[in-house]
Amino acid sequence: MENPSQMDSKLKYLTTEDYQILWSKAQVATYKPHEVILKEGRLSEAIYLVRKGIVRVESAAIGRDVAIAFLAPGEVFGEISFLEGLPTSSGVIAQEDVEVGVLNKQDLYSLLTSTPGLSDRFYQSLAHNLSSRLHQTSSLVAHLMRRIRVAPEYDNQRTGQVGQDAIPPELISETELFKKNLSDLEQSIRNQEISETEAQSQINTICNMLISSLREQIIQEPAIHKAIGTYIFRETFPFFMLSSFFDRAFRRPGECVSDSYITELLSQNEPEGDGHLGIYLDRWVRSLPTCLALKNRGGIITETIKQLAENWSTENPLPVTSIASGTASEILDLYFQTSPPNVHVTCIDINHQDLSTAATTSHRLGFRDHLTFIQDSLFLFAEGYSQIDIPLQKMIYGVSMANYLCDRELIRILDWIYEHLLPNGIVIIGNFHAANPDRILLEHILEWHSIYRSAEELEKLFARSKFRSLPLAIQSDEYGVELFVVCNKAW
User: pLDDT tens digit string along 362-378?
Assistant: First the structure.
């Protein structure tokens, strides 16, 4: 067994002798995976030193089985509660087989008072740790504030747009016709003068004609595209918001930095809406290429993982990581199968509700040991602020994160992925296609702002990352909505 004095101690100012003295009084405790070492909300009467294995830090506010940090051998925990005499603000759980040294208050105070200089060096070490955490937290907050203030590339303000008094007459006529046709159709449906099939066909035609006209006018008048989009938004809002999907997609949570919320709407909810038109409008929007692509996106990932697992030669699970995982529905689908592949998936996302939902599902259905959930900000991840590390992976993928990262941020994420891939590991990155057929509707009506890229732009970004000149395979989905980049870390 490793000598405690040889470990990378986080108690910076302790000497080797100091560390050995502490371990001589520590009680060694062992824990199996998922066993609770220190409960949240309990007063800590001891300081804990990780001797072997990895422990994860959880918060009840985030969710069970969702990690907010990991601690490795040499790390210390429980010290804040110990020093302040306050209940712990988070819990510590064994991620794997773990050994920890437990220094209770009485034994520790006895050592500190009986060993010359130990007390000063011990408290100086704790002060250094707490100062480092405070500095890190301050840096994270400052960066997030800058990201919120500077990063949005889109001005969501609707009033005062250049060209608001110069809306093309043709578009105004088309919009008025759109409203009249829908109002007439609503009357026909109310009077039961038209079949459901014919009503849906007419709705599809009316909406498609308007979006086509909007697209054409923006192409012709790019200088006033925001004013044109705002005009259509205002005029059509009362109609489109009858659709349940439009309503929920428009009001999607502000912290969403992936498409997982939209994907969940498409996969879990049937068409519905208010009034006589709502369900027809809902069916129409769900039939658009972007909605069809998002709904079927998970199949690409699950099939790739299954193929990799078939060729995985060791008994250990195939290691896979999903970045901006959302509720990880495509991963959970793997374990719902009769013969699930031997895979361990790490899911990383900022949205604790999505992670908690997935973690609860995996726990309830008995495959929690196959999944690790980590809460982390994608933007802090991109800036290198993340302190969460993972073992080398066979596959790392992010099917939606590139839609919300600027070039610099995406390159940094690619660098991180490269460093965490096994030799011959695979990365898959998805990005909305610059030629996405629904881009006009998404941006100007749903206010769903993303970063669209072409295949050439994605090639250049990979070339600027640590993947450099490694060969890429870039292909579009069958709907022309998304591009998927696949790159093998050749060794």
Answer: 888 888 889 999 988 77
Same domain? For 8 and 100 the reply is yes
Phi and psi of 84, rounded to 5°? -90, -15
Least confident of 240-244, 316-320, 337-341, 460-464: 337-341
Residue 43 counted as domain residue: yes
**What ranges in 94-195 are assigned the alpha helix state H?**
105-114, 118-150, 169-190
Instruction: State whether 357 and 322 are in the same domain.
Output: yes
pLDDT score of 404 more than 70:
yes
115 C-beta neighbours (distance < 10 Å), count = 15
Instruction: Choose one of 290, 317, 340: the last residue of a domain.
Output: 290
Neighbouring residues of 439: CB distance < 8 A, sequence distance ≥ 6: 432, 452
pLDDT-derived band of residue 437, with 50, 70 and 90 as boundaries? very high
Query: Residue 105 maps to which CATH number?
Result: 2.60.120.10
Question: Measuring CA to CA, which residue among 132, 63, 140 is closest to residue 381?
Answer: 140
Q: Which of 236, 266, 290 is the last residue of a domain?
A: 290
Q: What is the mean pLDDT of the chain?
A: 87
Q: Which two tokens stand for residue 221?
A: 């008048």
Please answer whether residues 452 and 434 qualify as being in contact, where contact means their C-beta atoms are separated by less than 8 angstroms. Answer: yes
Query: Structural domain of residue 433, as residue ranges?
Result: 296-488
